[in-house]
Design a protein that fits this description.
Blueprint lengths: L4 H6 L5 E3 L8 H9 L4 E4 L5 H14 L4 E6 L4 H12 L4 E5 L6 H6 L3 E6 L2 H10 L3 E5 L5 E2 L5 H11 L4 E4 L5 H9 L4 E4 L1 H4 L8 H9 L5 E4 L7 E4 L2 H8 L4 H14 L4 H13 L6 H20 L22 H20 L4
Parallel strand pairs: 1-9, 2-3, 3-4, 4-5, 5-6, 6-8, 8-9
Antiparallel strand pairs: 7-11, 10-11
Helix pairs in contact: 2-3, 3-4, 8-15, 12-14, 13-14
Bound molecules: flavin mononucleotide (FMN).
């Protein structure tokens, strides 16, 4: 058994977090991770407040363990409404990214915890100053949005500068990785791609198989997928998009879809765009339009298995994934490997 500051802080048994993944982290996947001893996080960026409440209650019907939600704060009013619902529902953990949290005191008031996610050392320091209980530090290997610095470089730098527990993300799939993260100063790891490749994950079988066949070199980084630097599975369409220009027609169709999905009028949708412009990360307005365009393609991949048009965010770690275990099998395996690795390394001490 491995006890860390993370397991103590959140009251879970194992130092493993399910990374929030838009579309992928269904209530079933979240609850499976919690029931296997990890910390499951529900991504809510695509959810209306009503859906957020429904999913939170579904998770509670499937597990009595602590869990969390993840929200992108650049979504402005949409993010505010989701966080309000999560606070009303007293969700144990609120995980945010891309923005400044305004809700920390409200979460602490009911005994909840707040985790900031960042890919920059300076933002990790800021999250600690603002009162976060823990931070997720994401390295360049990660699926979806990340920056240049790798996990191996970022983690020890952040660990030497902050006091709050660190959850390391980007590139984890097994127990050797977990043992390494603990050695580098983390209290847990967060896995996205690896959990997307489990039996419980709703990712379409076609994309699961493409990932399993892929090597560590079969992902591609571009800001063309949804306007922000992101890593996706390398396919003919992602390679073409990475070389191409701004997808105007897709952006219009996607903008309409997002507006409808989030139940916004055009005025509110534009407001969200301006909020992004004013955010700390300095995302320009067109990021929203590109996100809208990318959104269409993500659902095509995840739900329809459309390998010609769909985009699937995936990390370099696909190179070390070769099976589709259940969540419980995966977590048990990672823990057993981590314990064996720590024992083996300790035995090297003369
Ligand atoms: C399909 C997919 C969707 C994602 N959506 C989100 C999201 O909505 N919010 C977020 O903060 N991160 C999102 N991520 C990134 C993960 O939270 C996490 O940072 C990343 O998967 C960690 O790296 P790994 O894939 O190497 O484990 C997504 C990742 C994937 C694979």
């Amino acid at each position: 058994m491995i006890k860390t500051r993370m397991t103590e802080l959140f009251g879970c048994k194992r130092p493993i977090m399910l990374a929030g993944m838009n579309w992928v982290t269904t209530p079933e996947l979240v609850a499976s991770v919690c029931n296997a001893g990890g910390l499951g996080i529900l991504a809510t960026a695509r959810c209306t407040p009503e859906e957020t409440r429904k999913y939170i209650r579904e998770i509670r019907s499937l597990t009595d363990k602590p869990f969390g939600i993840n929200q992108l704060l650049i979504l402005g009013q949409v993010a505010k409404d989701t966080i309000d619902v999560a606070v009303e529902e007293k969700v144990p953990v609120i995980n945010y990214t891309l923005g400044k949290p305004w809700f920390i005191d409200r979460v602490h008031a009911y005994g909840g915890k707040v985790i900031g996610t960042t890919a920059f050392v300076k933002h990790a320091l800021k999250a600690e100053q603002l009162g976060c209980d823990a931070i997720v530090v994401t390295g360049a290997e990660a699926a979806a949005h990340g920056e240049e610095a790798t996990t191996l470089v970022m983690l020890p730098i952040v660990a030497s500068k902050v006091k709050i527990p660190i959850i390391s993300a980007g590139g984890y799939s097994d127990g050797r990785g977990l043992a390494a993260a603990l050695a580098l100063g983390a209290s847990a790891v967060s896995m996205g791609t690896r959990f997307a490749l489990t039996k419980e994950s709703i990712v379409h079988e076609a994309f699961k198989q493409l990932c399993l066949q892929g090597s560590e070199n079969d992902t591609i980084v571009s800001d063309k997928f949804d306007g922000m630097r992101g890593r996706a599975l390398k396919t003919p369409v992602t390679e073409k998009m990475a070389k191409g220009g701004f997808p105007v027609a897709d952006a219009f169709r996607g903008a309409y879809d997002i507006k409808t999905m989030l139940n916004l009028n055009w005025f509110q949708f534009m407001g969200m765009g301006f909020k992004m412009m004013a955010s700390d990360e300095d995302h320009p307005m067109w990021v929203l339009a590109r996100q809208a365009a990318g959104n269409l393609r993500h659902t095509k991949a995840l739900y329809n298995g459309d390998t010609k048009e769909g985009i699937f965010f995936a990390g370099q770690v696909i190179g070390s994934c070769s099976d589709l275990p259940t969540v419980a099998e995966l977590i048990d395996r990672v823990m057993a490997e981590a314990e064996a690795t720590i024992r083996k390394n300790n035995s090297m001490l003369a």
